[in-house]
Design brief:
The longest helix has 21 residues. The radius of gyration is 24 Å and the shape is elongated. α4 links the parallel β3 and β4. The protein has 2 domains: about 280 residues, Aminopeptidase (3-Layer(aba) Sandwich), CATH 3.40.630; about 110 residues, Alpha-Beta Plaits. α2 packs antiparallel against α4. About 35% of the residues lie in helices and about 25% in strands. The chain is built from 10 helices and 16 strands. The chain has about 400 residues and is of the alpha/beta class. The protein has an 8-stranded mixed β-sheet with strand order 1-2-4-3-5-16-6-15, sandwiched between helices. The chain has a 4-stranded antiparallel β-sheet with strand order 10-12-8-13, with helices on one face. It has a two-stranded antiparallel sheet with strand order 7-14.
């Protein structure tokens, strides 16, 4: 065991600079969701250089490759990363900052992808240790509905091989480099997007009695919706309802507009309550509008389910991380209200979605989806080593036989 860990760490260290260069190339050349053609080709070319035969264009811009060892049809473990960027203008000042105005890897997907590529290179060099097969999934469009996971599955990702287990990770800026965390069971929330159109009757700002002001109506809807969480959700059921955008259509200082549009999210951890919350949001929105003489149309874009980490898979990641990094560097995590379309994979396959710290101790903290997100690049070496070790141990243990 120790010899295998030492070997993996040596291989990870030997390729450290190459993996960092891959990550910096991706960071300079980010692609938005469903537009990841350059990223797709970059990943596919790296896989070809390793001797694999990737399939491209799965779910439009996704990539999948297989590594088969001894008795390849006996068991399959899948490893997944995501690689789309965000519509954010970078302000890190890095010498390898984004060269695309208004587009940035502000969620660490460049780090995820290149860590998996590094793990694959290690695994190929340790092919004699592989009994079964490994599936490598490079997922596009994680940041945008309907999500690359669902798109890839609908496009036949698992038609030939259905993995027995699947693993993925996400960087965590609030966790220091060298640390890893995970949680058994429910981990990340379901998410649905909400789109309101409040229709009133516009007019002159000085004669509001001749209008139905949709701004006032929308404001009352926002306040009334707070009851969904504070008075309808059970206290032990984590729920978040956020209105993130309100925009009048028309209007100015002395003009009442006809229409106001709003956008928001609802996130929680129970499918029954999720649907009940949708209905309460709809009734409150339409009811308040009607009582004030307006109309309200609500579109609910049914999004990702909650992420469920299989208990045995998660315990395995925990034990492997302890062996690889030391128990003092492994943490059990709390629930998160963020969402992940990895949940679609976890609905079908026993799964674990875990976290790797990327914060350089002593430096300012910047959260995900921020224009100044920084990654401690030492985390790439840690990640590709741990991913490779966990994959080999998963094939050895075969906990879902």
């Amino acid at each position: 065991m120790e010899n295998l860990i030492d070997k993996i760490k040596q291989l990870a260290h030997a390729q450290r600079e190459e993996v960092i260069e891959w990550r910096r190339w991706m960071h300079r050349h980010p692609d938005l969701s469903q537009e990841e053609y350059g990223t797709m080709e970059f990943v596919a070319e790296r896989l070809r250089e390793m001797g694999l035969t990737p399939k491209t264009g799965i779910g439009k811009t996704g990539v999948m490759a297989m590594l088969r060892g001894k008795d390849p049809d006996s068991y399959c473990v899948a490893l997944r990363s995501d690689y789309d960027a965000l519509p954010i203008t970078e302000c890190t000042g890095l010498p390898f900052a984004s060269e695309k105005p208004g587009v940035m890897h502000a969620c660490g997907h460049d780090m995820h992808t290149c860590s998996l590529l590094g793990a694959i290179k290690i695994l190929i060099q340790l092919r004699d240790h592989i009994s079964g097969s490994l599936m490598f999934i490079f997922e596009p469009s994680e940041e945008k509905y309907p999500g690359g996971a669902r798109m890839m599955m609908e496009d036949g990702l698992f038609d030939e091989v259905m993995p027995n287990e699947i693993y993925s990770f996400h960087c965590l800026p609030e966790m220091d480099f060298g640390k890893v965390g995970m949680r058994k069971g429910k981990y990340m929330a379901s998410t649905d997007e909400l789109y309101w159109t409040v229709k009133g009757l516009g007019g002159h700002g000085a004669t509001p009695h001749l209008s139905v002001d949709p701004i006032v109506v929308a404001s009352h809807i926002v306040i009334a919706l707070q009851q969904v969480v504070s008075r309808n959700a059970a206290p032990m059921m984590p729920t978040v309802l956020t209105i993130g955008k309100i925009q009048e259509v028309g209007g100015r200082t002395n003009i009442i507009p006809d229409t106001v549009k709003m956008e928001g999210i609802i996130r929680t951890f129970d499918e029954k309550w999720r649907l009940e919350a949708h209905e309460k949001i709809r009734k409150i929105s339409t009811g308040v509008a009607e009582a004030m003489g307006a109309e309200c149309d609500l579109f609910i874009d049914y999004g990702y389910p909650y992420v469920f980490n299989d208990e045995a898979c998660t315990q395995q990641v925990h034990d492997n991380a302890c062996a690889f990094l030391g128990e003092e560097n492994v943490e059990w995590l709390d629930l998160r209200m963020t969402a992940e379309d990895f949940a679609f994979f976890a609905q079908k396959i026993p799964a674990c979605y875990f976290r790797i710290g990327i914060h350089e101790p002593g430096t300012p903290f910047s959260n995900l989806h921020r224009p100044n997100l920084m990654v401690d690049e030492r985390s790439l070496e840690l990640a590709n080593g741990l991913i490779a070790y966990n994959a080999l141990m998963a094939l050895k243990n075969r906990i879902k036989q």
